Amino acid sequence: MSQKEPETIEIKISEDILRARQSVRTCMVDLGFSLIDQTKMVTAASELARNTIDYGKGGTMRIEYPAEEGRTGIRLIFLDHGPGIADIQQALKDGFTTGSGLGLGLGGSKRLVNDFEIRSEPDKGTQVTVTRWR
Amino acid sequence: MDKIPILKLGNILLVTIQIDMHDQLAIALQDDLTARIVSAHAKGVLIDISSLEMVDSFIGRMLGNIAAMSQALGAQTVVVGMRPAVAITIVELGLPMENIQTALNVERGVEKLQRAMEKYEKGTPR
Ligand SMILES: Nc1ncnc2c1ncn2[C@@H]1O[C@H](COP(=O)(O)OP(=O)(O)O)[C@@H](O)[C@H]1O
Ligand SMILES: [Mg+2]
Predict the structure, then answer these.
(1) Ligand 2 centroid to residue A44 C-alpha, Å
(2) Domain range for A45
(3) Nearest-CA distance from B76 to chain A in Å?
(4) How far is the CA of A32 from the centre of ligand 2 (A)?
(5) Is the pTM higher than 0.90?
(6) Residues 6+ apart with CB under 8 A from B103
(7) N or C: which end of chain B has fewer CB within 10 A?
């Protein structure tokens, strides 16, 4: 399999969410992930990209291809320089929203991936990293 | 901006979502459907999502809104054709689906709507 290069996609307007979904889908098909794995990761990407726009005032999604201990995967890093999240535990709770959503984006994404990491600092921004292994 | 077409079949409205929707398109569909239910005196709405490769909480919320608003206007909504991978994913995502009626395909969806409409008519006092 050919080595894939990491790439960074702008997440600023609603159409970028579509582009993010399509990029993740294409990469996962190329890497030979199952349809269910693809669907879960694309759905997580859609949730996190929307948060980047709705709450983070826009940012980027980086796609990486980690390889360790004989396994390979796909990693998505959502980064913004918005207001940040004051209480991460609360934000992760199902049903919690400060907007008009269902409050499932963060908690749901966490369930849909293998590794989930969130870092946030008030007034500095938010970085959410999700990984699915093959 | 493109639009999602709404087809009228007797007293049923059929919406086939054939493209990956961006947010404004999903919101426009909600508004268009509300108007059409009223103008077409529709008693049922079928939403075919068999082309959708994913349903996130935004689209899930839209489907729930359509179901609730059609109910308020006297029409039932049935969502048909959800792909197995999508069904598995929305359960894990945690999407509440209790208020959304589903059927395997358009044919089954029509049957379901017709049964619901008959029951509704019988139950209506004259
Ligand atoms: N990138 C972000 N920047 C700032 N706040 C965020 C970000 N992502 C999520 N949040 C906060 O976490 C809450 C929960 O997010 P989520 O689970 O996706 O639900 P929803 O999008 O429906 O509100 C949001 O309402 C928001 O307050
Ligand atoms: Mg969200």
Answers:
(1) 10
(2) 7-133
(3) 23
(4) 28
(5) yes
(6) B78, B79, B80, B109, B111, B112
(7) C
